[in-house]
Structures are given as structure tokens and as C-alpha cells.
Specification:
Two copies of one chain form a homodimer.
Chain A (H helix, E strand, L loop, with lengths): L4 H21 L5 H13 L3 E2 H8 L3 H13 L3 E4 L8 E4 L3 H37 L4 H32 L3 H4 L4
Antiparallel strand pairs in A: 1-3, 2-3
Helix pairs in contact in A: 1-2, 2-4, 3-4, 5-6
Chain A binds a DNA duplex (30 and 30 nucleotides) through helix 4.
Chain lengths: ~180, ~180
DNA sequence: ATTTACGTAAAATATTTATTGTACGAAGTT
DNA sequence: AACTTCGTACAATAAATATTTTACGTAAAT
């Protein structure tokens, strides 16, 4: 209570960084990724691995791992500054963009994985329907599976459209930024 | 290759269930939750803990835990069937609805957590701006923090609107089901 | 040409999360 | 009333993830 104003601001900034970390958690990224994002964000300018290590109290190796993960997720980028030897990392300053980056990179991953499955499954289904002698019960089962496959593919098409809807910024036309 | 048609269908059904599990993973739920969802889905009717235990090869205790998690997430429900003593569990059969349930329950959790933070932070900020003697540097810092707080609150308002946009089904007006 | 600082791979450790086993109360059955 | 069966709390164990330590190749500084 009787703290220095500057100290209190520092405390609030830390709380803020923590909150950002917490928010990140909802995207399924590890706590430390969230923390680092919050720290760089609050620092208001790019940071080196050593600075991050200092700020988190974690090893430099860990910072290296975390920062790589963030770059992969499109929520951080390496910044080149001439004359400076150490790598600098910066984060997206726009919350909405961060949301979109994480959302799209997660779902794109799932969509791509699914592509292979799609091919395999429909090939198998085609084959089985053309080759085999078919009794009634079998036919019913096959038809059910066919129907479900169709629904599944449609669902993934929808997901792909949804990702595009976010990535293009179209979402903001219908859910505008306050 | 020389398998029975019925056996091959079983294999495909299993692959399908697996794929559903995989998809679930993108939402940040545990693998087993995904598996159970896929199994019940493919079973096409509600299942008991014992049946699930049998189907997954896992303990009944684990099934109990998983099913509870699913109910909390709104992707499964307990079904009462008179005359039957065991609890039966069913899952949402509509992929889109499952997507929405998971999306909204995740973000709602985050939004609620944030509510408390909001109050605390803005109270602190108000206090510090009214009580303290202010020099120029301090004032600049405070203003920056105020601005960031505002942005953060706006962002969360947006998230809340987004959740509503999904939950109400409005999303389908703009990204229609194929 | 040596030395120093950097980032990260790879292996080792610590922490967290998932899973099982035991036990027990509540409710149904005999 | 004694006996089963059910679901789950709670403690123990196993598996997966996060984190650190050590080591090493590469590039800048001396």
C-alpha cells in the first residue's frame, strides 16, 4: 500500500503480462510461451534470449525453444538489428491478430493431417463397394459409413472455410472490433 | 487385402473414430476424451462405463473421469433409461455443434477468469491516478498502461461477442455448412 | 589465428498430467 | 437384513511434457 508509484506500476505491468500468459493458455500453448509473449509485449520492444532468460528466470536454452515455437505459430518474429549480434525477438502487438494466428495455425495443422485420411478412406470405400458381393446388411453398413464420410468431409471443408473467414479479416465485418 | 468385407468395415470405422479423436486434440482436450467421443459416436447409441472400458481397454475409473470432463465441456450427456441401472452416456452427433460447444466452453472460461482481473486492474489504476503526486515520466507510464488496459478490455469484449456469434448460430449465416 | 560469445542439439532431470488400483458409500436385488 | 453392483474419491503409479545441463559448431572480435 505504501509502495512507490513506480513500483506499483511495475506490479501492474507484471499482472498484465501474467494475464496475457493466461489467455494464451486457452489456445493450448504452454504456459511459458504465454509468459514470454506477455513479457515481450510489456517490454514494448524486441528482446534477446538473454534478456528473456533474465526476465523469466529460466535457462537460455528454454528461451530458445520457446521462441522457436512462437515463430512457428506466427506469433513472434526474429528481428535483425545491424550492429547487434544477438538475435532479437518481437511479438505481434495486436491481440486480435495473435488470436487469429493461433487459431488458424492450429486448425490448418488439423486440416492438413485430415487431407491424407480423406484420400485413403474414400479410396477404400470405393473399392469395397465395387468389388465385393453385397448382401443386404453389408450394404446398409456401407451406406451408413459413406454418409458419415461425406459429413466428415463437409465438416472439414467448413473448417477450412472458417479459417479463411478469420484469416482474411472477414470476421471483423460481422464481429467488429469494439 | 483378402479380408472379409465386414472386417474391413470395422477397420474403417475404427480409423474414423481415431480421426475424430485426432480432431478433438486440436481443441486441447486429452487424447482419451477424443477417443471416447469417437467410440460413442461410431457406436451410434449411448454406452455405459463398462462398455467404454472394454472398448478402450482402460479402467472404469478413467472412463468415469473422462465422461465427466466431457459432460462439463457439453459434448456428452448422461442418458436415463428406465429399467437400466448403469449410467448411459451419449455424445452430440453433430460435428458443428461439437466444435461450437468446445470453442465456447473454452473461451467462456477464459472470459470469466478475466472479469476479476478487469475490476482489480482498473480500480488500481484509478487510485494511482487520483492519489499520487505525478511527475511527467510517471504520467507517461500511467497513460500507456491505461491505454493498454483499454485495449485489453476491448479485446475481451470482442471475444465475448465472438463466442455469442458462434453460440447463436449466426456464424452459419456467413460461413454456411456445405 | 586464437579467443570469445552466440544459439541450439542431445541427453539428463524435474514437473505435470494421465491412468490405475483400492476402498467405500449409495442404491438395487435377493 | 445380507448381498451385489454401481460410480467415484483418493492415493499410488506410469507416461508425457517441460526444463536444465553439457557440449559443440559457427561466426564475430581480438
Amino acid at each position: 500500500m505504501d509502495e512507490q508509484p513506480l513500483g506499483r506500476i511495475k506490479v501492474m505491468e507484471d499482472q498484465f503480462a501474467e494475464k496475457i500468459a493466461d489467455n494464451m493458455h486457452t489456445y493450448g500453448v504452454s504456459t511459458t510461451v504465454g509468459r514470454v509473449l506477455g513479457i515481450i509485449y510489456m517490454n514494448r520492444k524486441p528482446m534477446t534470449l538473454d534478456e528473456l532468460s533474465e526476465a523469466t528466470g529460466m535457462s537460455k536454452t528454454r528461451m530458445s525453444q520457446v521462441v522457436r515455437e512462437m515463430v512457428d505459430l506466427n506469433i513472434a518474429e526474429k528481428v535483425l538489428q545491424k550492429g547487434v549480434r544477438k538475435d532479437l525477438y518481437n511479438v505481434e502487438q495486436d491481440y486480435y491478430q495473435t488470436f487469429i494466428s493461433l487459431f488458424t495455425s492450429n486448425w490448418r495443422k488439423a486440416i492438413n493431417k485430415n487431407k491424407m485420411f480423406e484420400k485413403k478412406l474414400s479410396a477404400e470405400l470405393k473399392e469395397i463397394t465395387s468389388n465385393e458381393p453385397i448382401d443386404e446388411e453389408l450394404e446398409a453398413k456401407i451406406n451408413l459409413l459413406l454418409k458419415e464420410t461425406k459429413e466428415w468431409l463437409d465438416y472439414y471443408q467448413w473448417l477450412a472455410n472458417l479459417v479463411e473467414f478469420f484469416e482474411s479479416g472477414e470476421i471483423f465485418k460481422h464481429v467488429p472490433k469494439p
